[in-house]
Each structure stands twice: as C-alpha cells, then as structure tokens.
Amino acid sequence: MIQEQERKILGFHRNVIAVGLVSLFMDISSQMIYPIVPLFLVSVIGANKATIGLIEGIAESTASILKVFSGWLSDRLGKRKLLMGLGYGVSVLSRPILAQSGTWGEVLTARLIDRFGKGVRTAPRDAIIADSAEHITLGRAFGLHRAMDTLGAVIGPGLAFLILYAFINNFRLVFWLSIIPGMVAVFLIIFFISEKARAKEELAKLPRLSLKVFDGRFRHYILVIVIFSIGNTSDAFLILRAENLGISREIIPITYLLFNVVYFSSSMPLGIMADRIGMKTMIAAGFLLYSLIYFGFAFATQPNQIWLLFGLYGIFRGISDGTQRAYLATLAPSERRATAFGIYHMAVGISLLPASIIGGLLWDRIGPEATFLFGSLTALVALIIFTLKKSPLQYGRETPSVR
Description:
mainly alpha; Growth Hormone, Chain: A; two-stranded antiparallel ribbon; 16 helices; globular
C-alpha cells in the first residue's frame, strides 16, 4: 500500500483524486455516447431489440475476459499505471469508428474496441485505488471514485442533449465531440498518477492465474455476483423502456442524466455509510432495491413513473457499485488485488452476454415486462445466497466494517 502522507489531498492519497478525475473525463466521453447508441441503432441503423442485446452482450463479455488477464498481468509486472493508460487510450480510438458507422456490425466493432480498452484498464485502476487507501476508508475511497466517475456521467448526457437539441438529432456529431474529454483523461494518467515500484522478489513469487489462490469466501462472492449479473441487463434496455412508455428521444438523455445525478450525489455518503454499518449489509440492501426497481420497470404504465424509477436506480448504483468493489478488496491479499478485481469484472462482464441476449429475446417474443421480471427474480436469488454466507475476515485480521 502507498503510504506517503505528503501526497494526501482532502484526506485521500493523490492517486485516489487523480484516478477519480480520469474517470470523470472518460465518463463524460462515454456517457455522451452510451444513452444514444440504442437510439442510433434503432432510428439510423434499423436494428431490432435482440440485435441491440447481442451487440451489448458480445462487446461487454468479450472485453471482460481481458479484465482478469489485465489484473493478473498488473500483479505480475507491477505496472498498473501503464496498463491503465493503455486501456483508456484504446477506448478513445473507438470514437471515430462509431462516428462513421453505417451498419450494426460497424457499431459492434466500435463497441468491441471501446470495451477492449475498458477490459485492459479496469482492474489495474481499481487496484491503484485499493493500494492507495487505508483499509478503514476503502468504502469512502471507492465511493469518492464512483461519485467522480458518475459526475462525468451527469455531464455527458447533458452535453449530448444540448448537441442533439441544437443540431437536430445529429448523433454522429456527438460521437466526434466525445473524443475531446477522452483525450483529457489520458493526459491526466500520464502526468498525475504515480505508483510505487515493487521488489522483483515480491513479483517473482506471485502464483499463476488461478481461482485456487483465493479462498471459499471469495469464490462464494463471485458466484453471487454472477447470479445477480445474469439478470442485470444492459442499461440500454432501461433507455428503450423509457422510449417505449412515451418519453421522446430528445428527452431520454435527461432521464439518464437524472439517474446519474442521483448516483453521483449518493455514492460518497453511501460509501461512508458502508464503512460504518457494514459493506455486506449495504450490498444486500442493493440487491433488494434492484429487485424492486426492475419490478417497477416491468409494470410501469406512465412516463412519469420512469423518472422515479431512474432516480431509484441511481440510488441502487450509489449503494452497490463502490461498496461491491470495496468489499472485494477485503477478500484478497494486497499483492493479488488486481487479479481479484479482474476476476470480479470478468464475472460481471461475461454474465452480461446471456443477460442481454435473454433480455432482448424476452422483450421481442413476450414483451418488456418479461425482461424486467427476469432481472427482479435473479436479484432476489442472489440476495438469498449472499446472506447465507457468514461474514468474511480480512487476510490476517478481522474486518469490523464487513458484516
């Protein structure tokens, strides 16, 4: 763990702040694009819902395989910053391809390149945060990161809305302009993130990539995450549900902005709460809330109900995203954290392929109600299995905040 006191800003190591700023600008770039890609596919390309589910599932799952290898490579080489920078740079390169896409296959190519970058960068990035935070402030550190990341997700859809409004649904212009904040993120990595070199002896003794180096508590947690993620369809389906219930395309980025405003404002307070009342309690509450939200999406009948559900979905993300990662950090030794985060993100991403395909097929063949009821049910199953396991202990000592 990096301990230099002189590098602390507002009580955080400067790496935590810097990584948060990187995610802020990259999410501005990504979220300018993400809420309108499903609309672009439907209105410009002419794709159906099953095709959209297939694109999202293949892109996320293929890239997620890289996350475990990137995390393991980061642990082996001790080069977290290098892999993080490479991943963010590759994602920026996907933007021109998307802007010039004329078929759903070209959109898939752009999404694959973007997710390739995410697969390379995510585990080393999360490991840098964990390495740079004290154990008792892990929830706070990850909560800060998710808050800054989500602030970018507030700004991004807002910018997309303004551009679409001013230039009358010019999706391609939004894609081109998203390159700028992405380049800022890469600049910040190069000049403002540092990492402590590890001894060659420490790197050499690391075991090979295998789940066997982690105990049963870790494997149980990954199983729970997989079960939950099987029903956690792409957010593209939330956007399509909003349109399905009568919200106009020009306004949809604002509904997504509302979600991100709530997500941003709740991430830090809920991260602090997780440190105080227990990460396991917060994660269980997140699963229950998600089940209720998807139940609501299944039976919503009016546009105003969508606004409420998007706001509640922001609270769910504020509860879960940072806390799930902070909890994971208590289940792995520090020298294996990047590998652990890689396995976690791979499990989430690979599960998105069946989740999105199932979600798309249920929508096309039965209706949107079936898609969201499926997600509601899997969240309840994950909650039950998660709460059956006793509280974990951190490697070498008890972890009071995990209960």
